[in-house]
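Hi everyone,

Forwarding the result from last night's run.
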Amino acid sequence: MKILLVEDERKIREWVAKALRESGFVVDPVGDGNDAYDLLKTRSYDGAVLDIMLPGRDGLSLLRSIRREGINLPVLVLSARGEWDERVEGLNLGADDYLPKPFHVDELVARLRAVCRRSKGDQLNLVEAGPVRMNVATREVSVGGNALELTAREFSLLEMLVRSPGRVFTRTQILDRVWDYDFDPQTNLVDVYVKRLRQHLGEENRDWIDTVRGVGYRFKG
């Protein structure tokens, strides 16, 4: 899942971004409300972590603007201030959850997963195509009933392919969604990870990931 992290305190932003990436998220970290607004208008995210106190456009104003414009991604609001009225205002403006500072990063990750899960529906935790079955909430994967051990990146790549069987994803799209990299025509990172996934799937199932020559990859529908 791709997350927008909006936090003006650099150390907190870097700490949270690192924790989210280690938990399998792709993260765009920004420290300014205006920059966050521009990203939300031009890019697609699965959720956002939003601090209230921001330079430029403050968090509540940002939340109000995106909800008015029909941007309905899940939003977890952070704030160092604990006043009840601020919490209520954020929830009334369309925040999905609220976490006061200081917080434990494991709780933030759990809450973020929960609001994303609720927004998509619990049934979307289970992803299945061909011989592959994935539980996004528990990070469990099986092929033909046999459990696999995947890294966070391998899991994210396989989830992306399995969620849309038959759809061709370009290397640029995969890099953006799984690694948050700008496209580098010289990199073979995607090809390396596809090779790893095929090895995990085993000889009998490796052909479920199909190479579309000159374009990218797809999971056979």
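The mean pLDDT is 87.

Cheers,
N.
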